[in-house]
Model the fold of this input.
Amino acid sequence: MTRYLKMSLSALAFVLGSATASAQSASADGVIRKLDLEAQRVLIKHGEWQGVSMMAMTMPFQVRDKALLQDLKVNDTVHFSMEPDGRDWVITQIARLEPAIAGQ
Ligand SMILES: [Cu+2]
Done:
């Protein structure tokens, strides 16, 4: 829970440029801000990445398979994995994290 609180408090950094794309995959937690099933795109406010140096920010991602987005909705907290594709990152896996139940 602490991790998510920390993430939501982190500043919405607007950064030009992106992480240096290597042939490395990465993963991160985040909150879905926008979903576009048809375009297979998702806007995620994400925390720091594991695997690649990337600060917390809100950014759009392409999703490899439309089906990955089917059970998700705006404001869901998710864990996702991605791979570099040219200058962009493409999400290859994404799963909702169930929020802790208040008071427990
Ligand atoms: Cu980012």
